[in-house]
Amino acid sequence: MQQITKTMKKFLFLILMMLPIMAMGADIFRIKNATIKYDKQETLQVKRAIGDLQADAERVTGCRPTLSTKNVRGPQIIVGTYGKSPLIQKLIKQGVIKETDLKGKWESYVLTVTNEKEPRLVIAGSDTRGTIYGIYDISERMGVSPWYWWADVPVCKNPDVAIQISGDYFASGEPAVKYRGIFINDEDWGLKPWASNHFEKELGDIGPRTYAKVCELLLRLRANMLAPAMHSCTGAFYSHPESKVVCDSFGIIITTSHCEPLLLNNAAKSEWDSNRDGEWNYKTNRETIYKKWDARLDEAAKYENIYTVAMRGVHDEGIRGNLPMSERVPLIEQVIRDQRELLEKHSVSRFARDIPQIFVPYKETMDIYENGLKVPDDITLVWVDDNYGYMKRVANPEEQKRSGRSGVYYHLSYLGAPHDYLWLNTTPPVLMYEELRKAYDNGADRYWLLNVGDIKPMELGMQTFFDMAWDINAFDFEKVYQHQAEFLARTFGHHTSQLSVLSSQLQIILDDYYRLAWSRKPEFMGWEYQWDDKAHTGLKPTEFSFEHYDEAQRRLADYQRISDEVERISSELRAESLEFATAFFELLQFPVQAACQMNRKFLMAQLNQLLAEKGRFSEANWAARQMEEAYDSINALNRRYNKQLNGKWDGMMALSTSFTNTCQFYQKPEVKRFEGAGEKAVLLTPLRGRSAIDCKVIDLQNCQHASEGTRIVHGLGYDGKVVQFGDPSKESEDGALEDIFYWFKSPNCDSVDIIVYTVPFWPLYKGKQNRVGVSVDDSPVQVFENKFKEYDRTWKDQVMRNGAVCRLRFAVNKNHPYHELRLAGDPGQMIQRVIIDWGGLRPSYIGPTI
Question: What is the dihedral of CA 291, 292, 298, 302, to 10 degrees?
């Protein structure tokens, strides 16, 4: 008996030891030699995506899986859509899939691995796009990046690749935002010349071949809609009939910009020509415009669309007719009634309320809306940022009750006043999260549209945007701050076992990249305004100071440091794989080094002028040559981008010359040269310890105490961190403001100036405020409210420097050794820098650093 017991114990021990191995084996599915099985009834869109899965598996394993709609033996990848696939219904009955994870769900999917009888990997979608997202999820788990084509991220060969589902079962849940997409815009200097002269040379335009690549990228990013390119340089989307067919074959919804009502692009001569069609004026030319819309819906209504209602002027102009507001409001209401009448006419057994529609209160249309325009309750209100990343407003409590809910139109790229920024992606992910989260928390969960310019080089911003749109609750300030570094580390960390080390290195680079561009985007370094401000045209010296606080020197040194760091990482990648180094160049190295050289170009030109004025001619000559080298480096970087990979992206990367002669940042600034003076290098190393005299910069992290909701947010501000006074969407129960307290050493004077730099947010909605309060010791609180009007000089200056500045004076008792500084603000307000000045603050752009 004792012997049996010992034997049983050994047996049980072996069983227990095997359990983890058995469990591990149960949720692993090897891709190689698997058959992809699906039902004939599947939609064409799912079948097309299955073809991508087949190709992705071959990219990774080297073997192309067989496709089958019949019973097969051996390992199987089963793909199906709820309600269309008998295979999925059978698996539900068998208990392999939970019906509640699919039935009635929007764009959801389930992944599961089962080894009963034969190994099976199941991809089940609640609807067509849900199934497609499940397919691309498996592709990404295999090692195929969504950016394998658009950013040339290599696919690592792995014949033994296996899919492991945690707990054997994964249910995606529904996306946080129902409609998620991009607007291809301002394509004149990138996507259009690239497509016309290279990718779709036979068409000479952006057409179906380009849109096929765009649609695939969108689906891999779990997006579902596209607003096509619409500038007059590009053929209108519907002028190439195959384009809409291609987008539909992917399952992508077509939407349009704020200035394309009912899918009609009046910026294209093929769609609206004033010589042929008359004035774009609904009051005087209603019949012609109505017929145009009628014809467009007759062509397009059978496809999946989201329709822009109301109307503006031609392209991005205000409504035509010079009408007073009392006439504009009823006219636009009539436009919307007529548009909904047409939608019902062209929709089979559908009421207008069941057809997705958006109203975009953009620019002057916001004024019309706020002057009483009645928008039907089922239409989605799409709130806009001010083109520079700050939401102009979000839904108020009454608007949040609308059945159509609300949405967001947000910019990573912009062409317009006060200055274009089309070249590089410099919008901090933390700002994007703050503004989109604010909108989402106030009802903007129906529609998110991102203006991405030419797509390249906005890849990192797009990745963050769509990850948030899919599951915004997976993010907070810390996670969004780390998101892009972690994404890049996963993308390029194949060569290292120390993924966290690489992520930390990339985080440091991204921190400085976004911080430096926060105070001035590379495109703004010429200090010129554009479009509607003739008094401020032409290149000018920057306001960064070489003489005070080493401000310009620090900027040059910081840019050079991260430029050297991306070069180092690139060299390490190149030693492992030229392909990975190429992708790294596109995603991070190019933006960092291009920004560095643009700053170097303008700051060295400024230094040249400064040295020339001081009679230091040989040093001025050196600075002039530095400017020339920076200018040449920018052109070399653009050329490398376009010519690498045998010219795959030829024509994509260029500095836009804009539509106005006031945009000159791409040019050489003027410098002075002195013959016979030779050259002498200037030591530009910033010196520690001479940052501030007779003034003090408050270390925002080093507070004495703070109210519960006040927090430090990293990834924003002139110093890479800001103080935020609570959640912008939440009021305190007793109405008290959130606050934070600091101590500072008493200066030998009777008064101090407190200079506060805030982030230039708009009020949440009408009735809300942007107030910041400051007090010293027991003094009354002095309140600063940031009031501005879009396109006035104050607003222009604030969006170009990402900051508003106020100076407040306080009496202090110089006999006290320390003083208490209290900062407070309305919910959501952010302070990015505080300087205490007792007479020593010198002229500079953003002041001394800590």
Answer: -140
CB atoms within 10 A of CB 55: 14
Contacts by 290-298 with C-beta closer than 8 Å and gap 24+? 290/338, 290/342, 292/264, 293/261, 293/262, 293/264, 293/338, 293/339, 293/342, 294/342, 294/345, 294/346, 296/238, 296/262, 296/263, 296/264, 297/262, 297/263, 297/342, 297/343, 297/345, 297/346, 298/346
Query: Prior bond to 241 cis, omega within 30?
Result: no
Give the tens place of pLDDT for each residue, 209-224: 999 999 999 999 999 9
For residues 108 and 101, is the Cβ–Cβ distance under 8 A? Answer: yes
| CATH class, 695-837 region | mainly beta
pTM value surpassing 0.90:
yes
CA distance 745 to 819: 6
The third-level CATH classification (topology) of the domain covering 476-687 is: Methane Monooxygenase Hydroxylase; Chain G, domain 1 (1.20.58)
The domains spanning 26-171 and 179-269+297-324+378-473 adopt the same CATH topology: no
Report the pLDDT value the prediction gives residue 687, as an integer from 0 to 100.
Answer: 65
Pair of tokens at residue 335: 């436009």
Q: What is the pLDDT of residues 86-118, one digit of tens each?
A: 999 999 999 999 999 999 999 999 999 998 789
Separation of alpha carbons 174 and 102, rounded Å: 9
Residue 251 contacts residue 128 (beta carbons within 8 Å):
yes
Q: How far apart are CA 533 and CA 523, in angstroms?
A: 17
CB of 542 closer than 8 Å to CB of 606: yes
CA distance 183 to 306: 13
Q: How far is CA 112 from the centre of its chain?
A: 32
Q: What share of the chain is helix, strand, coil (3-state, %, to 5)?
A: 40, 15, 45
Give the pLDDT score at 850: 84
Report d(CA 139, CA 151) in Å as an integer. Answer: 16
Contact yes or no for 115/176 (Cβ under 8 A):
no
Q: Which long-range contacts (CB under 8 A, 24 or more apart) does 327-333 make?
A: 327/283, 328/368, 328/371, 329/368, 329/371, 329/372, 329/373, 331/282, 331/283, 332/365, 332/368, 332/373, 333/373, 333/374
**Averaged pLDDT in 10-residue chunks for the chain of 850 residues:** 46 40 62 97 98 98 97 95 97 97 99 91 99 99 98 97 94 99 96 97 98 99 98 96 98 95 94 94 96 97 97 84 91 98 90 96 92 98 98 98 98 94 98 99 99 98 99 98 98 81 97 99 92 75 96 98 98 94 98 99 98 98 98 98 98 80 84 97 76 86 94 98 95 78 95 98 94 96 94 95 98 96 97 97 94
Of 149, 155, 235, 142, the residue nearest 195 (C-alpha):
235
Q: Degrees (nearest 5) of the Cα angle 647, 653, 656?
A: 145
CB-count exposure of residue 43 (10 Å: 0-12, 13-18, 19+): middle
pLDDT at residue 655, as a whole number: 83
Fold assignment, 179-269+297-324+378-473: TIM Barrel (3.20.20)
Bridge partners for 305 per DSSP: 254
Please name which of 746, 811, 753, 751 lies closest in space to residue 784, comparing C-alpha atoms: 753
Fold of 26-171: Chitobiase; domain 2 (3.30.379)
Q: Which residues pair with 830 in a beta bridge?
A: 724
Distance (Å, whole) CA 444 – CA 100: 26
Q: Which residues contact 93 (CB under 8 A, 6 or more apart)?
A: none
Q: Identify the sign of the CA torsion 295, 297, 298, 304.
A: positive
CB 29 within 8 A of CB 119: yes
Phi, psi of 175 (to 5 degrees): -65, 150
Q: Tokens in use for 840?
A: 């020593």
User: Which residue ranges make up each domain of the chain?
Assistant: 26-171, 179-269+297-324+378-473, 476-687, 695-837
